[in-house]
Inverse folding.
């Protein structure tokens, strides 16, 4: 039994962490091969397994870097590769192309109900919360009868973009009789979506670890009543509970990484996303509280971490949604 | 036992409700409902409307221009105001400084400052916390040194809510550096337009510059601005904090928040049905509602005890603890109710953000802001850890 990483994975994580200290530029990450590390050898990459995804995204989460890797590579290139669109998949993994994936529709919460329709290869519909849409060269759009590829700037395609809580950007996308090419059935989404959920959970794990480190330092240095606040037992016990929950989240992420390509994937996706979503919220709330006022301020580095953790729960179905999924998967 | 409100109190509630219906501008209540930031002018507008009616200072005796309400009447007014999404009355002059001046201030100070609080000429802010004095308030380091008929003030205050709008600040300052922590503190009123004062806004994690740092560099303050006796400020500060805590339970805010949560949950879909019918979500909402029903009664029981002349003990700390837990739970459920819409974060105050129109229903963007902003509830006014300490001490005495 081995819960560790291969030498290659460890080296990649180390060099990624070092690169992120110098630059948060997406080009530098692609140059380092962070995109290819997320693709299997069949798809022209050199990784793509659960542990590869875990290593890359946990490192990104620790660094707090906002990148196109989840949307454009894990999800975008992952779908393209499954659909046999090898050239565009490799371009996305190399950073030459940018893919945005348009699945959800407005007002559907986590329902996944699709009303976008294709008629003679032309799409009409509304898509919501399409992350990375304004930088995309291509969009993958889910319609009632499958997945379609749309080029950015196509006639009839309009975007209304806005900032997100985790520092990224998304858009409401409107399609009116837009020229598109069908690339396959919706079940091509299964593995890329599971991989994207792993990526998001691993990212959240990295953020949680960093937030806990920051809080630990603060509790040791901040003095009130003449002593470090970390010396108060009430604070110590809260921190002990928090660490224990983060340890659980770590194992949950490991569970999904180890089962991403196994027969029990769906159960692990639901279990991990539910547990990590709950823990992410807990860590955001507790680390703010343990800091006190300073934890509420934008200029202290905890604020973007807390927002990134809340965003991790709110995307791809929150902890309640995946609790219900877990019950459904186990009952099936 | 008769848990109903008296006929007089019921009549009062009807009168408040009618007044809010007639005089609360919808422009303001809509912003409050959507958790949008009110401008200085909008807050002043609501104060002026209440003052015209004589209802701005419900807690002040009539002799000082207040409404002279009972604790029950004040509770009714606060509850009805919250349910109508009225802007909250700024606590700094009305709830905090006013009672201190009425009890400990000189006649000159009362005549000079109290009318200006009511008519909106002065906007007060609170100079209590410092970078090194948060939960441990008695360790304030800002000094005031007597120099003829002035004090010279040096130091820094922080977490000064809405200080950017204020023209006066009441401060805890150290006047005797040799005395034991609580004993060398004085209560001083400082004109914020005095030379040597710098106010710097602090942006919070919801993007709102709601609080400030206030720096004092050789600020000369007339000695007549000392409230009460020198080195007795801690007594006045504690008196002020008990007044700050009278509405600490926030029953009205919680009740209004719960109603908004239910409305939002009816409009969001889950499993092909409204989210309000999802058993998992509905159970969480129900749990909070049951908690709120009990807390509202705790609050009323304490008000009744206060009306009967009893001094509340650790119960007000319990109300702060439970009240903030309930409000934060409602904020959390509301943000989760809007699902992915909560990801949008169009906050103007933050770097890289912009004023893009957020997607989704207007409640959605407010849900995230309210959640983030109200993390402060368990930190300010004596953090919840401090409250737990007070409760435990009252029981164990150790």
């Amino acid at each position: 039994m081995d819960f560790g990483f291969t030498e290659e994975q460890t080296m990649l994580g180390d060099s990624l962490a070092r690169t992120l200290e110098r630059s948060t530029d997406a080009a530098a990450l692609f140059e380092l091969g962070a995109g290819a590390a997320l693709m299997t050898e069949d798809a022209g990459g050199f990784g793509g397994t659960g542990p590869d995804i875990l290593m890359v995204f946990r490192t990104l989460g620790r660094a707090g870097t906002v990148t196109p890797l989840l949307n454009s590579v894990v999800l975008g290139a992952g779908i393209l590769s499954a659909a046999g669109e090898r050239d565009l998949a490799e371009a996305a993994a190399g950073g030459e192309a940018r893919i945005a994936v348009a699945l959800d529709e407005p007002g559907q919460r986590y329902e996944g109900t699709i009303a976008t329709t294709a008629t003679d290869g032309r799409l009409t519909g509304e898509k919501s919360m399409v992350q990375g849409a304004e930088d995309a060269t291509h969009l993958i759009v889910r319609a009632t009868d499958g997945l379609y590829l749309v080029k950015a700037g196509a006639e009839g395609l309009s975007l209304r973009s806005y900032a997100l809580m985790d520092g990224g950007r998304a858009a409401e996308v409107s399609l009116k009789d837009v020229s598109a090419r069908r690339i396959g059935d919706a079940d091509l989404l299964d593995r890329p979506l599971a991989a994207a959920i792993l990526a998001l959970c691993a990212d959240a794990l990295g953020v949680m670890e960093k937030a806990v480190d920051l809080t630990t330092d603060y509790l040791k240095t901040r003095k009130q009543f003449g002593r470090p606040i970390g010396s108060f037992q009430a604070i110590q016990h809260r921190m002990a509970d928090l660490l224990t929950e983060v340890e659980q989240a770590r194992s949950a992420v490991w569970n999904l990484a180890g089962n991403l390509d196994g027969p029990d994937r769906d159960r692990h996706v639901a279990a991990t996303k539910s547990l990590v979503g709950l823990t992410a919220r807990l860590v955001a709330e507790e680390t703010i509280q343990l800091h006190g006022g300073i934890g509420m301020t934008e200029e202290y580095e905890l604020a973007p971490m807390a927002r990134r953790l809340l965003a991790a729960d709110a995307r791809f179905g929150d902890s309640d949604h995946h609790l219900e999924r877990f019950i459904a998967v186990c009952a099936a | 036992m008769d848990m109903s409100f008296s006929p007089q109190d019921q009549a009062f509630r009807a009168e408040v409700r009618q007044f809010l219906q007639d005089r609360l501008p919808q422009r303001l209540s809509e912003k409050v409902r959507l958790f949008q930031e009110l401008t200085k002018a909008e807050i002043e507008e609501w104060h002026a409307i209440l003052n015209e009616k004589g209802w701005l200072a419900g807690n002040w005796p009539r002799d000082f221009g207040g409404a002279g309400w009972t604790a029950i009447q004040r509770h009714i007014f606060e509850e009805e105001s919250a349910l109508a999404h009225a802007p909250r009355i700024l606590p700094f002059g009305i709830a905090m400084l006013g009672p201190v001046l009425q009890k400990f201030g000189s006649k000159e100070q009362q005549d000079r400052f109290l009318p200006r609080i009511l008519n909106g000429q002065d906007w007060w802010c609170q100079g209590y916390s410092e970078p090194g004095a948060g939960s441990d308030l008695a360790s304030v380091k800002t000094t005031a040194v007597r120099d003829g008929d002035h004090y010279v003030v040096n130091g820094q205050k922080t977490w000064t809510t809405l200080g950017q709008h204020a023209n006066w600040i009441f401060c805890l300052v150290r006047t005797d550096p040799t005395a034991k922590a609580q004993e060398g503190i004085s209560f001083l009123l400082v004109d914020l337009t005095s030379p040597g004062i710098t106010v710097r806004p602090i942006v919070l994690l919801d993007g709102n510059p709601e609080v400030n740092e206030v720096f004092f560099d050789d600020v000369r303050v007339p000695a007549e601005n000392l409230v009460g006796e020198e080195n007795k400020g801690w007594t006045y500060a504690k008196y002020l904090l008990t007044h700050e805590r009278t509405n600490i339970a926030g029953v009205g805010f919680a009740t209004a928040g719960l109603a908004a949560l239910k409305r939002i949950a009816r409009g969001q879909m889950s499993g092909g049905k409204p989210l309000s019918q999802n058993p998992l979500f509905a159970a969480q909402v129900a749990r909070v509602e049951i908690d709120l029903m009990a807390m509202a009664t705790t609050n009323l029981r304490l008000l009744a005890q206060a009306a009967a002349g009893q001094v509340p003990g650790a119960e007000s700390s319990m109300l702060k603890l439970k009240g903030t837990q309930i409000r934060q739970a409602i904020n959390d459920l509301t943000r989760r109710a809007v699902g992915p819409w909560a990801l949008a974060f169009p906050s103007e105050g933050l770097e890289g953000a912009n004023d893009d129109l957020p997607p989704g229903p207007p409640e959605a963007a407010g849900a995230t802001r309210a959640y983030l902003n109200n993390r402060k509830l368990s930190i300010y006014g004596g953090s919840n850890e401090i409250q737990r300490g007070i409760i435990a001490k009252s029981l164990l005495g150790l």
